[in-house]
Design brief:
This protein has three domains: 103 residues; 113 residues, Immunoglobulin-like (Sandwich); 99 residues, Cytochrome c-like domain (Cytochrome Bc1 Complex, Chain D, domain 2, Orthogonal Bundle), CATH 1.10.760. The chain is built from ten helices and ten strands. The longest helix is centred in the N-terminal third of the chain and has 32 residues. The chain has a five-stranded mixed beta sheet with strand order 3-2-1-5-8. A five-stranded mixed beta sheet has the order 4-10-9-6-7, with helices on one face. By secondary structure, the protein is an alpha+beta fold. Bound molecules: heme C (HEC) and copper (II) ion. The site of heme C has 26 residues, from helix 8 and helix 10.
């Protein structure tokens, strides 16, 4: 056995490992910081989170490099040589100094990083001192497989949409919940996400800093349509946002009034296109979150592209597909994804409006 691995040779090897490790760490950190990990930052919360990320990269790369180098050197140094087959290594009874060191350093590192992360989280969760108007509250509800956003409009009217509209520069407080299973409300450009859990309300704060449109995604595997559970956040100038909300609250007045009077006629209370894009307050999920339809401007989703499959179908056939989606499954599309409750939650007038809208808008 080679007992004499210590001495000058081993000191040289440690120096060699140290130099190699430093070079590899520097390269690794440079690469880690150069990579664009995240989309464009679009909230005040994004800054501290991106800094936290960079610090984690800077700290973790040397640890990874150190462990890797020690493993490689150990594998080379202590490999089995010819004639050593079947021999045991020397009996080692531990090294107290070494064990204290390798327990203390990670413990200190972990504690420091956790404290730092905790402080960052506490800071970004705090309501900012009123920057540009009062805080906006938005209720977010996740369900298979769409997001619904509800705002308090004027006169206590509730405004619900499937697209998230936000004013730039104003703090927004999201109240997040789930209807069926656990989803996760994530806007990568804002860097914030939280689980949407049935029965409880979670949430976070965000102050959008950039005008534009940003993806909203579900970050919790929630069923067959999970990958399509997407929507968009549109950040507007505060004045434009206020105008939008005022207009939406006015519009949401009309159907509510119509229904209260007993709903005299289909056209007054049910606009097929609106039901298609936004659903109803009654709990009907907007069709547009799953179906592409040129007339409504909706994007490809988990459901069939209606511009392709509907031409040639009669109104009765379309209605049957809506009321009982499982009766006939479109080839290549998953069963059990389209909600089966439209027959209940849509009034006959609303159902007729959607069917009429669909057959009209897909007629060539
Ligand atoms: C959560 C996603 C989802 C929503 C919301 C949804 N659908 Fe569907 N839809 C599907 C899927 C998936 C299919 C294909 C499987 C099947 O036929 O049931 C489908 C099938 C259909 C079909 C049959 C197409 C064909 O091949 O003939 C029609 C029509 C349809 N949907 C209309 C609607 C309408 C109208 C609404 C809104 C009132 C709606 N869908 C809401 C997912 C959805
Ligand atoms: Cu989901």
């Amino acid at each position: 056995m080679e007992q004499r691995r210590g001495g000058r040779n081993s000191r040289r090897m440690v120096v060699e490992m140290f130099v190699l490790g430093t070079i590899a760490s520097l390269i690794g950190i440079a690469i880690g910081l150069a990579i664009d990990w995240f989309p464009e930052a679009a909230s005040t919360q994004a800054g501290p989170i991106d800094t936290l990320w960079d610090v984690l990269v800077i700290v973790s790369v040397p640890i990874f490099v150190g462990v890797t180098i020690i493993v490689i050197y150990a594998a080379r140094l202590f490999r089995e040589r010819p004639g050593e087959e079947g021999l045991d290594g020397p009996p080692i009874h531990g090294n107290t100094k070494l064990e204290v060191i390798w327990t203390t350093i990670p413990a200190i590192l972990l504690l420091a990083l956790c404290t730092y992360a905790f402080v960052v989280l506490r800071d970004i969760e705090e309501a900012p001192a009123s920057a540009a108007g009062p805080e906006l509250r938005v209720a977010v509800r996740g369900e298979q497989f769409a997001w619904t956003y509800t705002y308090a409009g004027s006169d206590g009217k509730k405004v619900s949409t499937t697209r998230l509209f936000l004013p730039k520069g104003r703090s927004v407080d999201f109240d997040v919940t789930g209807k069926d299973v656990i989803h996760d409300f994530w806007v990568p450009a804002f860097r914030m996400k939280v689980d949407a859990v049935p029965g409880i309300t979670t949430g976070y704060r965000v102050t959008p800093t950039r005008l534009g449109t940003f993806p909203v995604v579900c970050a919790e595997l929630c069923g067959l349509g999970h990958a399509y559970m997407r929507s968009e956040a549109e950040v507007m100038e505060p004045a434009a946002f206020d105008a939008w909300l005022a207009k939406e609250s006015e519009e949401s007045n009309a159907p509510a009034g119509g229904e209260a009077e007993g709903g005299d006629g289909a056209t007054a209370s049910a606009d097929g296109k609106t039901i298609f894009t936004d659903g109803t307050d009654n709990g009907a999920l907007g069709c547009g979150s799953c179906h592409q339809l040129a007339d409504a401007g909706t994007a490809e989703g988990i459901g069939p592209n209606l511009d392709e499959v509907l031409p040639g179908q009669t109104a009765e056939e379309i209605e049957a597909s809506i009321v009982d989606p499982e009766a006939k499954i479109t080839p290549g599309k998953p069963a059990g994804v389209m909600p089966g409750n439209y027959g209940d939650v849509l009034s006959p007038a609303e159902l007729e409006a959607v069917v009429t809208y669909l057959s009209d808008s897909t007629k060539k």
